[in-house]
Specification:
This protein is of the alpha/beta class and about 210 residues long. The chain has a single domain, classed as Rossmann fold (3-Layer(aba) Sandwich). It is built from seven helices and nine strands, in the order αααβαβαββαβββαββ. Helix 4 links the parallel strand 1 and strand 2. The longest helix has 13 residues.
């Protein structure tokens, strides 16, 4: 399959395969469940969330967490890595599209659209289009958990350059779509005693 950016090729290939193994460890599912429980507290009554679109679910850790918390939950995930997509597709009530985000075409909308450590992996030139995908397919809520920096910077990653980026992803999305407003935000800290995570900021937004 031909992709549009070096970052897409990178995560679709062998490095993306290796990422699957490196990022499975004891307590991962409990941690993500606790994180999403905290985030859902910011939505009055759960906001009626019953469906979600995730860009880059990998093997589906976040979707499993949401299924634990929301009865009758269903989701679609767009995953570029074939190996990860096959694992994610084993989750009940989850539809997986194995493709690049930029190729996704659908009229379906969801109660929640979100990313978790995924926008930071994308080619910066594609971000406006990815913000549009999150916006256009959301009925109401948009969530992202990413590395934050007030100005765009590149972070060296395992000997590679231009593979991880920090910036104000949420602010940029709200600038692109002025009817999206911030509901809540927070920080996951690597020294958390119970559920440590890479130092990253989360943002919950709502279409008004």
């Amino acid at each position: 399959m031909k992709y549009q950016t070096p970052q897409e090729d990178f995560w679709a290939g062998e490095f993306g395969d290796g990422y699957i193994e490196r990022n499975q460890y004891p307590g991962l599912y409990a941690k993500r469940t606790a994180h999403f429980a905290r985030i859902l507290q910011s939505i009055p009554g759960g906001g009626g969330i019953r469906s979600a679109l995730e860009l880059g679910p990998n093997i589906g850790v976040n979707l499993i967490a949401l299924r634990r918390l929301i009865p009758g939950f269903r989701a679609t995930g767009i995953e570029i890595n074939e190996k990860a997509a096959k694992e994610c597709a084993k989750i009940p009530d989850v539809t997986v599209v194995q493709d690049a985000f930029l190729n996704y075409k659908s009229d379906e909308t969801f109660d929640l659209t979100f990313t978790y450590g995924v926008l930071l992996l994308q080619n910066p030139e594609t971000l406006p289009a990815l913000y549009d995908i999150l916006y256009e397919h959301s009925n109401r809520y948009i969530f992202m958990c990413e590395y934050y920096n007030p100005t765009p910077v590149t972070v060296p990653y395992r000997g590679f350059t231009d593979r991880i980026f920090k910036r104000d992803f949420a602010g940029e999305l709200m600038d692109c779509h002025p009817d999206v407003q911030l509901v809540d935000y927070g920080f996951f800290y690597h020294r958390d005693k119970f559920f440590p995570e890479d130092d990253s900021n989360w943002f919950l937004m709502e279409k008004r």
